[in-house]
Design brief:
This protein is mostly helical and 71 residues long. The protein is built from three helices and two strands. 42% of the residues lie in helices and 8% in strands. β1 and β2 form a beta hairpin. The two termini are 35 Å apart.
C-alpha cells in the first residue's frame, strides 16, 4: 500500500490545481513541462513484473510430499 501512495503522491501528470477564478488547470500546462511520473503506467509495470515472477516454475522443497515432520 505504501508503494501505491508514494507513486500517487509523486504523480505530476494527472494532477490539477484550482485557480483564483475557480478554474482547474493541469499541472503539466502550468509548469510548461511534461510530467515525470504517471501513476497508471508505473503501477501497470509493477503488476507486469510481479506477474512475470509468479509465472516462473518452482521446484518443490526437499521434504515435499514426505510424511516425516522433520522434512
Amino acid at each position: 500500500m505504501a508503494r501505491i501512495v508514494d507513486v500517487m503522491l509523486a504523480d505530476d501528470r494527472r494532477s490539477w490545481q484550482l485557480g483564483a477564478g475557480r478554474e482547474l488547470d493541469q499541472d503539466e500546462v502550468l509548469q510548461s513541462a511534461e510530467g515525470t511520473i504517471d501513476t497508471f503506467a508505473v503501477l501497470k509495470d509493477d503488476v507486469a513484473a510481479a506477474t512475470a515472477l509468479a509465472d516462473i516454475p518452482r521446484r518443490p522443497h526437499a521434504g515435499s510430499g514426505s510424511m516425516d515432520p522433520r522434512a
